[in-house]
## 1
Amino acid sequence: MSQEEFIEHILPLKNKVYRFVLSYLHREAEAKDVVQEVLLTAWEKIKDPNSIKSLDAWCMTLARNKSLNLLKKKGRNYLDISDQYNLISRDANPLKQTENQESFQKIKAIISTLPQQQQEVIRLRDMEGYSYKEIAQILKLEMNHVKVLLFRARKRVKEELIRENDYGISHAR
Amino acid sequence: MESHMLDKLTEKYWQGEVSDAELQQLKEGLQKAKLSPDQLALKEYLAFLDQPKEEDVLGKDFDHMLLQKISKRKKREIIPLNWRNMAAAFLLLCGLGYGINWSLNQNVETITEQPQPAKKTLEGNLAFNEVRDALLLLSENLNQGLEHSRLLGEFHKTKEVLELTKDQKDESN
């Protein structure tokens, strides 16, 4: 594809891909390298961006494969998502801001205790907004399986949040 | 929004079955003061998901570096190296190599045919010698036979002389 098409269609995906890759690798430098590889591969392999139904899903699939391969090569395991989502509480009230930040940390901690596939699904669906079909394509799963994983993940998040809100005890640690 | 409707939508969300429009209704309904533990947990979770992420994590430097690499790769792309071209080149080389090897073998076989007249001469000499020896042996035996006949003749002559001498002696007595 042309450089103009790359700038228009592929480059805007960089941050999304970066967050996704960082959730696997947990190292910024490595994640940046993988993102670079993914985007350059997209430029080389995709002749016409309009011919791909979901460029997002295409890039995320490649990003996931490269991340998992790198983890395997380095002998590392899939890690939690605690750090790559630098969520910013935009509440004007400082007290509310602090409360929100604590709540975000709590939810991140809960999600980090989920099994790998549930984490992947909840991140792609709830945080990045992908459809079930796209998630199935990225994770190479059946769509029904994706729905089951999301149900289990959300149920666990709900139960932990209710428990923490009721007793003020973190069971996620 | 009525309570039972809010309960229904909350349940649908945790089961992963809520549509985008229903999600919007749910967010509005969760703004009311009195909520169940399920609804409180959901409100907290949705607030977590709705907070904006850090916008451009990778920055303009990353874009610039990536576009530079693309420009360099474009210049280097004289012959597109893909697996089909490489496979075809490999097969062609193998074919050429096989052909050259076959041609060389043909030449070697032609050279190895040339020493046969010399081999025949050697065999001829050997045969001649054998025949000569056989003929010599025969001739020796032939010569022996004649000699034996001559000796036999001499024997008969001597015998006749002895008998004549004996007869003459007997007459004198």
## 2
Amino acid sequence: MRIHIETLAENAMLSLSHGELAKESNLEEYFENLLEVVKLPEIQEDLPSLEETQPMILRPDEIQPSFPRDDMLKNAPQTQAGCYVVPKTV
Amino acid sequence: MITNLTVHELSEKLVSKELTATQVTQAFLDQIKATNDNGAFISVDVEGALEQAKKVDEKREKGEILSPLAGIPIGIKDNIHIKDQLSTCGSKMLATFRSPFDATVVQRMKDQDMVLIGKTNMDEFAIGTTGESSFFGPSKNPWNTQHVAGGSSSGSATAVAEGAVPIALGTDTGGSIRVPCAFCGIVGLKPTYGTLSRYGAVAMASSLDQIGPMARSVKDIALLFDAIKGYDPKDAVSTQEELTPSVETIDQNIKGIKIGLPKEYFNHQLKPEIREAVEQVIETYKELGAEMVEVSLPSADQVLNCYYIISSAELSSNLARYDGVRFGYRTEEYDDWEELFIRSRSEGFSASVQKRILAGTYFLSAEQYESYYQRAKQWQKKISDEVTAVLDRCDVLLTPTTNFTAPQLGAKNGVEALGLDFATVTASVTGIPAISMPCGLSSQGLPLGVQLLGAKYGEDVLLRTAYQYEKAVGGFPVAPAYRGDK
């Protein structure tokens, strides 16, 4: 089975030609081996997922105080006027 | 030697004022400096730790009644947030990230007046079983520094085993506390999923991640677990179940306790000397009055794959947030937002993390979702049902923690390393608690580990069973190179 590694990388927002993955060889072969190893057999029984039997309990949808804006911006690579600076998107 | 004392031994000396918190903290800071080459820590808060210790001493001088954990130094895995301190997750992606808030467990430890001494090394984003993938270099095994510490809570295990801290926090998604504990000859608990708040722990696989304590005594584990467990509304899966305090019952005998031995975990892959050591543990438990029960988990050979698929899928989603915009590494060269995202991620993550993201992306893709992710979730339910049925007949289960001793640095990689998690992933996939304890040394002098698994929310029974073994064998010392006269 051929893995369309280029499509995977695109979906994952990763590059095969730049950065750390560019240094790896035989990525397709690696994934083909991996996917053979981790395959699971089909289950015949009709089983609910664990989440259906153990649902999350969400807290009430109430407004609570949050973090100061400046604190949240402290780790940003670039900010301006209290906002994150990014390349033009529109 | 202060650094050879366990948490409960230190606590007694602090309460009796035989030692001050400042003396204790300074002793561990000196040990951290002396063992720096082992790569246990990413950052150490020398001034902050001494300041915290000083405040504890002042409180004690005023006659305040303090927690048994007051003044005890602790190492925190570098994916658990301490406000204003680095949380790198062992990655270039977060090499300069400082957390704007405390994790809930950190706040609870501060409330106990513990001394948060530093952030420990780890496999990058908690993805790994050997401790070799950290951007800051590997953590070494204090029993033989040519060997790995195990991962991903590598630094925490190294730090405890070398006497640099008496206790540490790690995280465990598929064995990341228990594997390094087995390799480094210390004790580590992965609690029931939902008992320790994950708020402030950087997510790897959200339905599997758990924070847990690592130390050289089960009693220390119980002390810390009791202090920081409990409901947190900031963690959507935090349990509201009443949890029996573990310390209160830890010294009760275990006569009549039923210990299940799942035959699938004593298979042909188990190294003979690990098998012998675990059989010796079984004999010790029999002498303590426990009853052994042969059990079977027929789906054991599917658990590792089930884990790998679920964890890869979830981490590919969790790591999508690292895009160079709000925090973390940003590439220097980009023309548009797409290049910003792709280059930042491709330069900021190591190749092994990127490969895992690709795997998770594959498992969640439209064409493969049913064959991989959905099927893995069904297997998860099937495995959970089998484990629940077996635990209806037993109080705990017993298995080796790993099939191997700690490999040499550089020896294991890629698909082969998957096998290291074989015995630990069962507890992760089912959400039940599990503890690893030392059970002897290999012919090469490397620690061997035995694992107990308990029923959900049954940490009190699990820790009691573990502690009675610890008492029977006389405790678990620091690695030989770091022992002194007590």
